[in-house]
Amino acid sequence: MALKKVAVIVAGSWGTALARVLADNGHRVMLWTRKAAQADEINRLRRNEKFLPGAELPEGITATTDMAEAVADAAAVLFVAPSSAMRDVARQASPYIPENALVVHATKGFESESLKRMSVVLSEELGRPENTIVVLSGPSHAEEVIQRHPTTIVVAAKDISCAETAQDLFMNQSYFRVYTNPDFIGVETAGAIKNIIALGAGLSDGLGFGDNAKAALITRGLAEISRLGEAMGANPLTFAGLAGVGDLIVTCTSQHSRNWRAGSMLAQGLPLSEVLERMGMVVEGVRTTKAAYALARQHEVEMPITDQLHAVLFEGLSPESAVGALMGRVRTHEIEEVAVNPSARHSGA
């Protein structure tokens, strides 16, 4: 494949790790940041210490605060902005993105005000069909990718040729394997909502519960993700793949996970405002909990774990009371969505 210029927006941990993959593949990477000091650190010292301490960045990455410089003439533009900033940075980039450039995003969240998926936000701001926008997701800690540890992800787009172009762009036979999937709704939904379950896993561990509790949380969390995803038009098989159960496992079981760490701190009695201040980075699961809580009501889907986490985060419920509420729910079948009453596939927990 011919080497290409790729713009990566923004220079957080995941954007920087993916910039390394692209640079390792021989592409010329322009990494955009709002902060001049960060751009200078990347260009002079080959470091991004706030987000990936100790990692040395290859020469193929150049940082800039100039959006036009970053995006102009790019063969592909990768958006890795937080969900809360996606619309703003897409609007800034839009005038400079070449008409034939591939657009990819790797952000796991919803726009909290509109409840829209990130591909919808990008489609609106860039004036491009949603089916051509590629979603990159899967079990992938930036801290491991930057060290070139073996990682496998998925790229999804309804237009499979766009997904295959992204696959070729990111595939690295040494350490970064990429699969394609046409179910971009399922991939986006799974990637966003797993952050809620990871908050719950952190709470569980912070309360001193063991593996039994975490296994139950992950399994029933996957049921919640699948119910909402199907209601939004996703293929249920997606949730058994990398973007579903794969990402859920890695985010719920690793201290690399910001959402896990935030949940653990909440279990120690710290208020949400202090947790977010201590984290110093975006914790997508907090905003996603609010969005998923609203989406569940919009689609008439039961999401008891999400409901209880919403109560802990925004209604003052104690983590211990949330666990009691989940354990004391009315008895039900495990797989009633399919086996017992197919017409009531969005109920239960």
TrEMBL record:
Provide the residue positions that the database annotates as binding NADPH.
S13, W14, R34, K35, K108, A142, R258, V282, E284
Q: Which reaction does it catalyse?
A: sn-glycerol 3-phosphate + NAD(+) = dihydroxyacetone phosphate + NADH + H(+); sn-glycerol 3-phosphate + NADP(+) = dihydroxyacetone phosphate + NADPH + H(+)
E.C. no: 1.1.1.94
Q: What residue ranges carry the coiled-coil annotation?
A: none
A GO molecular function held by the record = glycerol-3-phosphate dehydrogenase [NAD(P)+] activity
Q: What region holds the Glycerol-3-phosphate dehydrogenase NAD-dependent N-terminal domain?
A: 5-162
Sequence positions that bind sn-glycerol 3-phosphate: K108, G138, S140, K194, D247, S257, R258, N259
- One Pfam family name is NAD_Gly3P_dh_N
Write out the pathway annotation from the protein's UniProt entry: Membrane lipid metabolism; glycerophospholipid metabolism
Q: Which UniProt keywords apply?
A: Cytoplasm, Lipid biosynthesis, Lipid metabolism, NAD, NADP, Nucleotide-binding, Oxidoreductase, Phospholipid biosynthesis, Phospholipid metabolism
The active-site annotation reads K194
Q: InterPro entries, alphabetically? A: 6-PGluconate_DH-like_C_sf, 6PGD_dom2, G3P_DH_NAD-dep, G3P_DH_NAD-dep_C, G3P_DH_NAD-dep_N, NAD(P)-bd_dom_sf
- Top-level lineage group: Bacteria
Please state every residue range assigned to the domain named Glycerol-3-phosphate dehydrogenase NAD-dependent C-terminal: 183-323
Question: Which cell locations does it reside in?
Answer: Cytoplasm
Checking SUPFAM superfamilies in the record gives: 6-phosphogluconate dehydrogenase C-terminal domain-like (SSF48179), NAD(P)-binding Rossmann-fold domains (SSF51735)
Q: Which HAMAP family match?
A: NAD_Glyc3P_dehydrog
The similarity comment for this entry is: Belongs to the NAD-dependent glycerol-3-phosphate dehydrogenase family.
Function statement: Catalyzes the reduction of the glycolytic intermediate dihydroxyacetone phosphate (DHAP) to sn-glycerol 3-phosphate (G3P), the key precursor for phospholipid synthesis.
Task: Name the chain's protein.
Answer: Glycerol-3-phosphate dehydrogenase [NAD(P)+]
Organism whose genome encodes this protein? Cohnella boryungensis
Gene (UniProt): gpsA
